[in-house]
């Protein structure tokens, strides 16, 4: 099977994962023609120094949250790399709150720094806090007091809101932290809104900081930004500004009821667009595998459960909702063979490469740290890709 065949197969499935257009059944991406894959010819502006239509798009994005905005085609990873570099100085520290994505670790490693666990007593003027909220699972962190106290100490705050681009879309969705006293908010448009993979927006409160971040975005971002991705951000913005959540909440309730009738335990979280599923007598890995057998592709699986990213259903969408319900009826949950990988021989060794299960992309063991295999326990099945694991196994000549 080549890549085309694999894409054909998976895209014919029912998507409960990102990107938010769910195999082009949500939103209006069909308006974007492949012919629009152009470059910076006259009339199309330049993303690295936007002055015309791209500046207008940035301004419109910013006006949604009353701040400066820059559209980015290389994902929130680029927004994080740029923001960290823009806020770095010789003597400041970066503290993290929540489960930080590898992009934060990577950004700091380029500066020979590592993020430190948040501790209010250690904060000094000029330091930076990076808050990751919502989590991958759609939980919100309660950071209101922290933001107030941090600001009293003249600390800068970056919010990794990669999973929250749909926040504030209507009043029934959570509130974005952009409306708190923070400096930068980075959102992956592609994750929950209907835009192409890679689409992201960096929102900045102050002009000077915005310009500094732009400087670094231009260093980290491709010099050939993809116009299809940019156009998809414009589409997603229109979607966001006109979204009516009536169908979404009606069908969400129907789906939850249907899952329960099929004996699936449904955990709801702060973000209504996420559900975490489990089932008694089986592991979440069994459930995820069995869902795939009926053509339903989930976002992630861990000990906590199977994560679904729900489609932002709307009038005129073509999401296969009835097919989803009927495929759930056909579920036949089987125990999968214990697909655990035995990595016990790695225990106690020094990691020669950072080890990061993906998804969620949160590093668990950093290069140079001792490997504690207990930290990896819930991920070492053949279902989860663990970046860096192979390199460590090869280095220590361990066969699994
Ligand atoms: C919390 C978090 N931050 C940042 C990112 C990076 O986002 P992107 O894929 O848009 O580069 C991810 C990706 O999964 C993420 O989970």
TrEMBL record:
Source organism superkingdom: Bacteria
Domain Orn/Lys/Arg decarboxylase C-terminal: 336-371
GO terms of molecular function: carboxy-lyase activity
UniProt cofactor(s): pyridoxal 5'-phosphate
Record bears the keyword Lyase: yes
Keywords: Decarboxylase, Lyase, Pyridoxal phosphate
Record carries keyword Lyase: yes
Domain Orn/Lys/Arg decarboxylases family 1 pyridoxal-P attachment site: 128-262
Family under the similarity heading: Belongs to the Orn/Lys/Arg decarboxylase class-I family.
Name this polypeptide is given: Arginine/lysine/ornithine decarboxylase
Native source organism of the sequence: Nosocomiicoccus ampullae
